[in-house]
Amino acid sequence: MATLNDVAQRANVSKMTVSRTINHPEQVRPELRSAISQVMRDLNYQPNAAARALVSRCTRVIKLTIFEDMDTTEPYYMMLLAGIANELNRHQYALQLATRNSYEVGECDGYILTGIRDEDYAWVKQLQQPVVFFGRNLKGYDYVDTDNYQAIRDSTMYALHRGYTRLIFIGIAADKPFELDREQGFRELMAEKHLPAEVVRLANHGHVATKYIDEHWATMTPNTAFICASDRLAIGIEDGILLHGGRVPEDFGVIGFDGMLLNQVASKRLTTMKQPLEAMGQAAAKLLLTKINQPQPEQTKVIVKSKLSIAESTR
Questions:
Q1: Do 148-274 and 61-145+277-304 have the same topology in CATH?
Q2: CA distances from residue 88 to 229, 294, 313 in whole angstroms, order as listed
Q3: What's the topology of domain 148-274?
Q4: Is 175 exposed, middle or buried (0-12, 13-18, 19+ CB in 10 A)?
Q5: Domain coordinates of the chain in residue numbers?
Q6: pLDDT tens digits, the chain, 315 residues: what are they?
Q7: Any idea where the HTH lacI-type domain is (predicted)?
Q8: What is the phi/psi pair of residue 10, to 5°?
């Protein structure tokens, strides 16, 4: 295994210069930095992350802190974790997963936070390390998210283009920025089309959505599309329609939001707004590492576009 001394000898520089290239590259002339980096690649030299941490007084650990309950029936967080971990690995950082019961255990160089609750902001405010939120927040913190507003507008427009004349938005009963953005996207597009904006807010569980259809089936008219704020809700809506003998997609269309597996196991595979969670995780890790190395006072917002995945639940 190549050593720091091997790199220094091959590049004809001092070990101090090699160390500076690794730990403080901004202090080394670009042409010299490039030459030393090439030697490191030629020798397959891997800097000792533990030693670097001691020198720089950092932990080389990033915490992904999840404040909401994780559902093991879908790979939502697995895709997010993969994106974050792969990006951190490229920079020799380790990822530590923390929950609401363990977020204060151990040291780290920065936090990626998701599922934050109002009562948690006091804890966030006293953090000394850089923070990036997964999901839009109203407190001025940097974040990575998809454009929830535009995504629902796109879903709604698609349903109208497929000829459905009555549209119902099935939202999540939570006053969170992502949910408010999705509902606003639906309401504003319907207003622009001079159509009534029917909005229902339910707990984010499939059986709750199925019960809603069961209780309101007598009012459900053919040529209706349901624009849902999650795939869980969409599957519940679809199941309720099919249990009552309704035809999907001929008479009733259903569009979900997420596209992380549940859409594939529905009775009729869901048309859904698919979030690129792995890419979003990668973007969150990149943003946090940038903040660690070059703190910025202004709020940074990174938006990753979602894409409608068309399947069997719409015409």
A1: yes
A2: 31, 16, 38
A3: Rossmann fold (3.40.50)
A4: exposed
A5: 4-47, 61-145+277-304, 148-274
A6: 788 899 999 999 998 898 888 777 778 898 998 999 899 889 988 776 555 554 556 788 999 998 877 665 557 788 899 999 999 998 889 999 887 776 677 789 999 999 888 888 988 998 889 999 999 998 999 999 999 999 999 999 999 999 999 999 999 999 999 999 999 999 999 999 999 999 999 999 999 999 999 999 999 999 999 999 999 999 999 999 999 999 999 999 999 999 877 667 677 899 999 999 999 999 999 999 999 988 777 889 999 999 999 999 999
A7: 2-56
A8: -65, -40
